[in-house]
Each structure stands twice: as structure tokens, then as C-alpha cells.
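Pertussis toxin subunit 1
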Amino acid sequence: MKIVKLLTLLFVLFLYATQSLAVVFFYRVDYRPFTRISANNPPGFNAWGTNDDLLRHVEGASLGGSNPTSPASEQSAFISTTSDLNQAISLGETITISGIEGLGRLPFYIYEIRPTDNFYSVERSFRYYEQQTGDTEIYNQMLAAFGDQREYAAYLHIPIAQIHRVIRYDYNAERNRYEVAQTVDNEDYVDAPTGPNPGPYPRIPASGPAAYLPPDILCTISLNNSSSMSRFFTRSLSEPVDYVTTMKNRKRCHIMMEEMSSISDLLLD
């Protein structure tokens, strides 16, 4: 009887150890196929610049697509990923461009990525900044706006060896939805028992978010299906409805502009 109990205990411990070593994958939506990502220098995902102000990254102020000609010091040092696959898919569906000279809805790609210690939880970082600075209102508002994205920001680079697989989504016009079209495993993927950094990103932002920019440079994105590009970009009202709504619209605007940069590259190939 004691032997049976001992074997049962060992089996349970084995299962627990196996589960604890299991790799947890994060996800990134992108409009570039794997061939483009692997052709980067260095191969993989690279940040737009060296600005490691996480607050500016999350609100969209330092995303490279908003102004690709800005110096590297002004562009984000982070690469956005999420721990929630559904969030990645939803983002891909939301900002996909339709109706560009008959191109229709473009495909998007979900990259399954093995995180390492240069991946930082935005929520954990913001909670830490809140404690250190006392700016409770700022960080609570930011998390209210973006917390559901479950974002993990990767610092500077995601090597090609950390991309596990790529899932392509194509639009099915008959069913009026995006569907999985292809799943490709990365032959260069290296398996390893790694995970995200358990702590916050250490640099505390110097100031609060720059939410209220002049209305002539703010833009929002219509989340409805549009037949032309002009309906995706609209000028903001003279006064924002509220802080959270403004921040969401601003972040979406910059995400769209960043993706437009990669889409333009594809069309020029």
C-alpha cells in the first residue's frame, strides 16, 4: 500500500514538473509574411528605435509607423506581443485594410513566439510605476484603456529562433469572416524552457501620457467596414470625449499607421 502511495506521489510530482516546464507562447499580429520577417537584419522582429519609455510606447506616441523619419531615439524600443491569442486575432481583424484599389481585405499573420526575459508585462510595469510615482490616476486610466490587450512588450529584438509557428488568416467573403488559411512551423525554431521577465520594465517614465494633442494632428479609426481609405482616418473632435476614449483612438491610429508602413513595403515589392 505504501509503495502504491509513493508511486502515486511521484507520478503527481512528475506531472507538476512537466507542466511547470511547458513553454508558454505569446502572439504578435503582423501583415508581413514569414519570408519578410526572416529577411530582416537581424532576422526576426526588430524595434523601430531605442526609446524605452514604455508609457509612450503603449499610448502610441513612439510607434515608428507614425513618423518613420524620426530619429531612433524618439521611436519605440519595444515590440508588442500579447499573451492572449484572441486579442491578437481581434486586432488583426480590426485594423485590416479593405477596399484599396480592389485589393480587398488583406491577409494577416499571427506569430506564435517563445518569450524570454526581455519580454515585460505592461500591466505589471504600470502597477510598479504607479507605486513608485504615486500617479494612480494616470496608470489606472492607461490600464482601463489597454489592459484587455494583455500586452507584453519585448525590448529591442525577437530572434527568429523564438518564432514557433506562423498562422495565416485569409478573409472568407462568403462567410464574411477571417479564417485560418495556413499554419507553418518555423524550421529554425529552438525549443527552450524560457518565459517572460517576472518583474516590471525598470525604467520609470519621466512624465505622464501626452493624451491631449492639438486636434489637427489627432486621428481616429472607424472600426466599421469601409469602402475607401478616407473613411478610416478622420479628424478628432475639437475636444476629446474622455481620456480613455481618446487614448484608445490614438493608439489605434498609430497602430494603423505602423501597419500601413509594412503594407506599403509589401506593395512595393
